[in-house]
Hints:
Blueprint: H1 18-25, H2 31-72, H3 79-85, H4 90-101, H5 105-123, H6 128-134, H7 140-151, H8 155-162
Amino acid sequence: MKYNTFKLRTPLDVEWMKPWLEMKNCQELASLDKHILMYQLYQKIIQDCLIEIKKETKLNDIFFILDEIEKKYAQNLSLEFLAKKFHFHPNSLTRYFKKQTGTTFYQYLQKIRLKHAYYDLMHTDMKIIDIALNNGFKNVKSFEKVFQNEYKKHLQIIEKVYN
Length: 163
């Protein structure tokens, strides 16, 4: 079971502390007023802590997203699928992914697919069509185009060398 620990921090906005500071200096406040102010103070502290936890969780989301891509790269993986799985709007995930990785989702997915395809080309006797389809490419032509753009080599040359 995971327990969240709250990190107390100095709030940037001290306006919300004014009632608390006034309460300390004012002895004639009714007991109910003191309880209300105290409740408001606790509520604000907890709210600030939860915002911090949410920010930290969002920063960790990218690692889970990248792990999911690595696991499912060979499938028909889409931005919409990941957005739904990780509770993002697709547009938000696009911006978040670009900000965290410096590349778009589809560029990253292609690089992962190419990395695995390149490994298969070098270390297996599989045919190019099987390598392309096993690594998430729709057909050999799309695989060749992406491969040539990335590695600047022609697949037929590699095929001749290894066959």
